[in-house]
Amino acid sequence: MGKITFYEDRGFQGRHYECSSDHPNLQPYFSRCNSIRVDSGCWMLYEQPNFSGCQYFLRRGDYPDYQQWMGLSDSIRSCRLIPHVMLHSIGGLRREDYRGQMVEISEDCSSLHDRFHFSEIHSFHVLEGWWVLYEMPNYRGRQYLLRPGDYRRYHDWGALDARVGSLRRAMDFY
């Protein structure tokens, strides 16, 4: 079980709201989000309701202002608790609809370009576990949550293009 607390003001001040499960619409509970405390679990936060817009992956810890989670603004409108799983496996292809050269990954990869010699992946098949895809190497840039399932083209995971830089297993360290 996870627990996250959203605060309207920086430094864990102002109105706050505690959450322990997926929530598609946080708007009724607070108008802005400037700090967050993650007591347990891993979470993906979304700038828009219904798990859309820019995404931010947070692990257990304190985030005293939105810049600490690489936020672009103080807008958090939905959140998803990422289940703790032990096995992780993902396959990615260089072209849409599962065509082209295939790569299989079961560990974090800080630079897909250095490891596999390409910087674009157009489709994914997530076999096990949940993953966070970053558009830049070393876990930087826009983030996208990949749950078990098929992603035939980059639009399916919410990206604007097929650029990928790094990939990390979404897991909590207990």
Automatic annotation (TrEMBL):
One of its GO terms (molecular function) is structural constituent of eye lens. This is Beta/gamma crystallin 'Greek key' domain-containing protein. Belongs to the beta/gamma-crystallin family. The keyword Repeat applies. PANTHER family: BETA/GAMMA CRYSTALLIN (PTHR11818), GAMMA-CRYSTALLIN D (PTHR11818:SF119). Crystallins are the dominant structural components of the vertebrate eye lens. It comes from Sus scrofa (Pig). One of its GO terms (biological process) is lens development in camera-type eye. Residues 2-40, 41-83, 129-171 form the Beta/gamma crystallin 'Greek key' domain. Pfam families: Crystall (PF00030). The keyword Repeat applies. Keywords: Eye lens protein, Repeat.
